[in-house]
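Weekly sync, protein design subgroup
Attendees: M.S., D.O., the rotation student, P.L. (late)

Item 1: inverse folding check
M.S. brought a backbone from last month's batch and wanted to see whether the design step gives back something sensible before we order anything. D.O. pointed out we never logged the input encoding, so this time it goes straight into the notes. Structure tokens as presented (220 positions):
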């Protein structure tokens, strides 16, 4: 299994390779952290719009307002693809990116089918999620701790993520694990150990997972 050092850079490169095809970015606001990440210049959507025509989708109207003000030349859609995809958006996109969204939705199948409706024929879906197999989760559990986003509903490992994608009409092409940025000396040491483990076992050792999948043919 590949190990990705920087999820944001990897996604940026994926979008750049997709250009000039349009990209849909689901969960583009990263709410409730929109404002602070915009100010810091680390919001993923800011990276993606630099390299491709990207339409941002989100369910948070207030957070989308912040993005519309900060990125006034970009296109945004207020929509919940789990409930329904606007007619004008159906079959429009060469790539749909849903970064750290799937683990938050109450109905994964409906969400993924909504993503599928956005894709044009031959288009691809890219999903990123926290990794249930991350050693960091195991270490925290030994200390009696669980550190999660306040809206987090579930974890995915490589096999459960692939199974979920297949159940919604996708065939995974690539599944990789990725490392979160290290902000401390301890983090750098941990990443060194993770890289050694990956070199030896080639397993899903990163904190996150990245999956790229294509829609399968046939009836839904």
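Designed sequence read out in the meeting:
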């Amino acid at each position: 299994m590949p190990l990705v050092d920087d999820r944001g850079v990897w996604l940026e490169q994926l979008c750049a390779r997709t250009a000039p095809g349009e990209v849909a970015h689901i969960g583009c606001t990263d709410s409730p952290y929109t404002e602070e990440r915009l100010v810091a210049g680390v919001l993923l959507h800011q990276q993606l719009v630099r390299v491709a025509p990207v339409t941002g989708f989100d369910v948070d109207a207030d957070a989308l307002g912040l993005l519309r003000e900060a990125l006034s030349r970009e296109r945004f859609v207020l929509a919940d693809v789990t409930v329904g995809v606007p007619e004008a958006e159906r079959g429009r996109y060469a790539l749909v990116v849903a970064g750290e969204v799937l683990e938050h939705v109450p109905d994964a199948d409906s969400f993924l089918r909504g993503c599928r409706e956005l894709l044009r024929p031959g288009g691809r879906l890219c999903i990123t999620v926290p990794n249930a197999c991350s050693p960091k989760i195991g270490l925290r559990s030994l200390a009696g701790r669980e550190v999660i986003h306040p809206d987090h509903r579930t974890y995915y490992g490589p096999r459960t993520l692939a199974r979920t994608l297949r159940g919604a009409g996708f065939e995974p092409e690539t599944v990789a694990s990725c490392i979160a940025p290290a902000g401390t000396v301890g983090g750098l040491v941990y990443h060194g150990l993770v890289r050694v483990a990956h070199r030896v076992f080639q397993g899903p050792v990163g904190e996150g997972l990245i999956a790229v999948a294509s829609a399968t043919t046939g009836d839904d």
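Discussion: The two ends are 29 Å apart (CA to CA). The chain has one domain: 3-215.
Action: P.L. to compare against the previous round before Friday.
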